[in-house]
UniProtKB/TrEMBL annotation, chain A:
Residues 36-297 form the Rab-GAP TBC domain. Keywords: GTPase activation. InterPro entries: Rab-GAP-TBC_dom, Rab-GAP_TBC_sf. Residues 376-392, 701-719 have a biased composition (Low complexity). This is Rab-GTPase-TBC domain-containing protein.
Automatic annotation (TrEMBL), chain B:
This is Ras family-domain-containing protein. NCBIfam families: small_GTP. Belongs to the small GTPase superfamily. Rab family. InterPro entries: P-loop_NTPase, Rab_GTPases_membrane_traffic, Small_GTP-bd, Small_GTPase. Keywords: GTP-binding, Lipoprotein, Membrane, Nucleotide-binding, Prenylation. The keyword S-adenosyl-L-methionine does not apply. It holds the Pfam family Ras. Its main location: Golgi. It is found in: Golgi apparatus membrane. Residues 184-213 are annotated as: Disordered. Residues 185-194 have a biased composition (Basic and acidic residues). GO terms for molecular function: GTP binding; GTPase activity. It comes from Chaetomidium leptoderma.
Amino acid sequence: MRTPAETKLRWEETFKEGSNMADLRRAVKFNGPNSPCAAGLRSVCWKIFLLWRTAPAELWPELARESRASYSALCDQHLRFIRHPALLAALTVDPLADDPDSPWITARNDETVRAEILQDVCRLPDEPFYHEERIQAMILDILFLYCKLNPGVGGYRQGMHELLAPIVWVVAQDAVDLETVATDDPADALIFEMLDSSFIEHDAFALFSNIMESASTFYEVEGGTNLEAQQRNTIVERSKYIHEVALIKIDEELANHLRNIEVLPQIFLIRWIRLLFGREFEFEQLLTLWDTIFAYDPTLELIDLMCVAMLLRIRWTLLEADYSVALQLMLKYPAPPPPHGPYTFVDDAMYLKDHFDAAGGVTLIFKYTGKSPANTSVTSPAPSRTSTPSFPKFNSLRQRTMGARSPLSTSARILQQPGSVEALLQGAAKNMMERGEKLGINQAVRGAMGEFRRNVQGFQETRTLARGDRGLFGESGPSLSEHSVAITLMERRNRRLAAMLDESVTNLKLLAASAFEGERETDLETIEMAAAKVQFVSACLEDPSLALPEEELPALNTLAISSPTEVGSSTVALDTTPVVMVSSAVDEIRSTLSTPDSAKGDNTLASRPNELDIEQAIDEIDEMDTDDHDEDTLPPLKSELTNSPPSSVSAVIPDTPPPPIQREQRPNGPIPTRSTLAQSSFAWMLEPDTTSSSLPRRHSSSFASGRPAISGAGSGISSVQKKRSNTNRERNAFLFGEVTADGAGEGGLSADQIFGLQPIRKGG
Amino acid sequence: MANDEYDFLFKVVLIGDSGVGKSNLLSRFTRNEFNLDSKSTIGVEFATRSIQIDAKTIKAQIWDTAGQERYRAITSAYYRGAVGALLVYDISKSLSFENVTRWLKELRDHADSNIVIMLVGNKTDQRHLRAVPTEDGKNFASENGLSFIETSALEATNVDLAFQNILTSIYQIVSSKSLAEEGADVGKKFDPREGNNISLSQEGGQEPSKGCC
């Protein structure tokens, strides 16, 4: 148990940024390891999020006392005979009487229920804490009482114990033994009273009951006694909703794939949901996830979308997976690599709630995997202009030049090293934040950013609409000359964006160099300004249809060119524009880094407008990485031109949908070659065709390397499918490195190896 | 990968009361592991292991589920396509043996009527606590047309044998059916590199089919 001094310190830490819900929430979300839940008292935060809500701090002790008193009363009522069997024996009731109200009957039934609960309590996860006798007794009593009080739930259900155990742990962690604590300060006394170790059970019960108000539906079984042949379960309905409504809207390709390989969602969702992801993540990460859930979604409404977000993160692996591999993957969900730990699924879910469509899905897939679904037109700036058939010449030309790689491999070649660029920028950002922290200006910046986020969310709709309507280059038929015009325009646009980024970087560096010695407010403005600009640039990079200031948005002119110290209202300026960016700038830059090889390329034709951005982005990043760039914020026009003269890229279609044939066909179902079995009740056994193909094996042998499999899937099954995707990954990683190193990238690999070309044999 | 080259893929389910040791039978058979404090199963777990029978590779896909009796959220998904079932009870808990009848009924209700069922009395290591005599298990099995075995996942007694037996039974049913249809060029369809999926049902699709196009 912690010392009183440490506890006090943690109490202060918890409320460092304020004691109301909003402050705490923000701190939980943005403070990382300094979150009030991690550095402060997690149990107090949870109580505020779940129990005390908006009640002012003065009322907390009173609320705590009330709930503890009511729990004690419940214990007296329901646990009396269990805790004191002698009392039962002293009763004058015949133990063998058939009276259903007989306390003896109740006692025997209670013992059955308790035995059932105990069986699971003894099998809690490995944490030694869970196996302390006193803790197990607490967990047993809490669960038993909960079941007694909520007969509607249908008694104890396996899983509840693992929902409760972390709560008990968290409350016990913060508890203090009042007997060892002596204090004269009444304020301290109140703090210690609220953390009194003799009320761990009481407080844990209150928290658990509150969570179960929403979570009990995860455990409900309907129509248990009805004559219905099949019990209807809310969890099954929920799973169906997640798969057949939510996922289909957000990522239809993945939903269809899961359906085709006949993975029933409830198989894995039952555990994900019932345990609130308790078994899916490592314990510390789980606690952080719960912090975020309780802070932002105390009624657990986002759980469905969190599940969708989890599926999106592994969608590429899932799309390659057959039945066994997919199930294995979802029953052993791969740990999300930092900095996007499990708690970010809550962010994703909130995002998906506001963007409940394919575009929302694409954004998240992009954000975390750097890849965008190749066959969706959502990302393209002008979806109305479509179809490969209208550009036959161009496509055949492109195929020849680019080794006829498939769209799939194109997208697979988008920057494959999530670590590199992102880590760089994030490192820089974190550094800045830490410095700001010391100066006490952090909260203000965060406040401003929060504001910005909110505004941005409001504008998201507008932009989505705008995307559809506004083609960058009008709707006229594409000819080669028009494309070169388009490229020129695009390059100009990119240079201007680069200039904006440059300026921000310069200002931030100046600020860093000045060690914040200037006016605090001015510094703050500079930071805000820079952040706003970076976000603006990232928005422009993501959406080529967004016009730059000089063209359409004079309001932004100030923002783009004026010195940050003179601009006092950057957020206001942004508010007037349809500029939107919710995900971080870094991610967006990453998303544009689609094909590094062609960017430096030897007259390669770019396949998408973004490929030009890449070059831009790479240059930008390069410059951010070095200290010696010019303080002048003019666009680095000359170097741009030498790097890729417009003439070398003679034809680019800004928005070219992928050629249809090259995509590896997903089996729609095993019907053609094995119809009899497919139609039988054993059809599920038919794994997708890809499993047994000999093709993957060949690949894996020719690209075998000592690298361990990246996927976190199970030990028992390893699959050629996974291997192949790893091979792809390695190949791409190699490619990327090669190009940035010396621009050659041909190292001994044949063209189709480089481009990740898969012979088109599936379904043939 | 040996795991991905198989002649037959059999789905086998584990059923029985909570705490009888289903998960440990699974981990003993597929990973040769036993965990005294194994967590209770929530929803479904599954694992695979391939074994050789008659020079054929049989991939067993074994499903394990929560034993809690009221928990039927996944019943149909769980039994769908299962060609074998291990109905497990704990020899030290008579209640788990009494409940075998209910599990059997559930199998009859939800699983394929030709499913091969083996009754398994687990935890023979608990000799001093035995509550169900071996004879009782044997008798119940023969009355109901099930095969029977006693195992200890903890001591690794008979676990492999139990799975091997049930997989062999399934395999024999399947191969006798293919033999019966030898004339209909079934043999050609066997490619050692590609998985064959089997069905025990009478109507349609009983011949091993190719696992790939």
